[in-house]
Amino acid sequence: MANHGAVTHGEDLLRAYLEMELVEHFATISLVMKLLGQEHMLNAVEIERLREKRQHTSKKKSPSPNAAAGSRHKDECSSAIRGFDQ
After folding, report:
1. Residue 32 DSSP class
2. Which residues lie closer than 8 Å to 14 by C-beta, 6 or more apart?
3. 8 in any annotated domain
4. pLDDT (tens digit, 9 = 90+) per residue, 25-75?
């Protein structure tokens, strides 16, 4: 898989696709922040706070991939934080 770029997976094809959309979204944000000279990497304390919030919100029922756009934002945040756990 060398030189293939980002790879995502999911419970099904739709979930894997949404994960890739999330990766591309964050890559765009990162690029724009670098170009603006305002990129800020999270420190250990900030990452821990995000993990704690994730723990708190994961106790609630997660929205399905077909949920309304407003619910998708919460799902995207959980997916992004999951990347820190790996």
Report:
1. H
2. 65, 66
3. no
4. 989 988 998 899 887 888 999 989 988 987 877 666 555 554 554 455 556
Query: Any idea which residue has 């739709």 for tokens?
Result: 14
Contact 18, 10 (CB under 8 A): yes
Interhelix angle 44-58/69-85, nearest 10 degrees: 130
Distance of CA 32 to the CA centre of its chain: 17
- Has residue 4 been placed in a domain? no
CB-hemisphere CA count at 13 Å for 4? 5
Distance of CA 18 to the CA centre of its chain: 10
User: Is 75 within the bounds of a domain?
Assistant: yes
Amino acid at 51: R
